[in-house]
Amino acid sequence: GENVEQHPSTLSVQEGDSAVIKCTYSDSASNYFPWYKQELGKGPQLIIDIRSNVGEKKDQRIAVTLNKTAKHFSLHITETQPEDSAVYFCAASRGSSASKIIFGSGTRLSIRP
Amino acid sequence: DAGVIQSPRHEVTEMGQEVTLRCKPISGHNSLFWYRQTMMRGLELLIYFNNNVPIDDSGMPEDRFSAKMPNASFSTLKIQPSEPRDSAVYFCASSVSAGVQETQYFGPGTRLLVL
User: Fold this and answer.
1) pLDDT tens digits, residue range A72-105?
2) Nearest CA among B10, B50, B32, B12 for reference residue B92
3) SS3 content of chain A, % helix, strand, coil (to 5)
4) Cβ-defined contact of A103 to B43 (cutoff 8 Å)
5) Do A43 and B109 touch, CB atoms closer than 8 A?
6) What are B17-68's pLDDT values in tens digits?
7) Nearest residue of A to residue B31, measured between CA atoms
């Protein structure tokens, strides 16, 4: 079945440095890749998404890249701040309203002051 | 705007008891999803509805779990009888379904502990 693998499971970076989280997916028909941030005691919240017709998307300090050939996609956070500390989930789906979203196992990001 | 509303936020019950979790999706959203989150298994999709109709319930663990969506503004997830391994955080999410995949908005979750 569909599978999304996410690495690393934990990541600690110095405030101001960059953080990179990587994911791979198994379903070659996947064409929608959202990223969610989950803070303690809250539900996951979408922070950025990318569709397969583009290779990169940026939103301020956050960027996602997609390599459909290799079935890899990544989240890049630059100039990290304490409020970036959270669990981040990548996900993949076939992109139709009837498609399931398959989530990765999550990355716990800690920002060291 | 009110987001997805879930109740209760916390539930502690004893093994064998019935548990009912409730969800009110965002007004205007026509898809609703129930997820379970545990340390061991991560975030798992249990079931989702489109226009109040169950589309895929392949993630429902077993017959002890059932979900309903009697109208566009309310859904329930019921566990009967509950077991300690059902302890988890249960999330409800909703989205607009209009052909392409749209953002799923998650509720705050219900933290369930079965003793």
Assistant:
1) 999 999 999 999 999 999 999 987 766 788 999 9
2) B32
3) 5, 55, 40
4) yes
5) yes
6) 999 999 999 999 989 999 999 988 889 999 999 999 999 898 998 899 999 9
7) A97
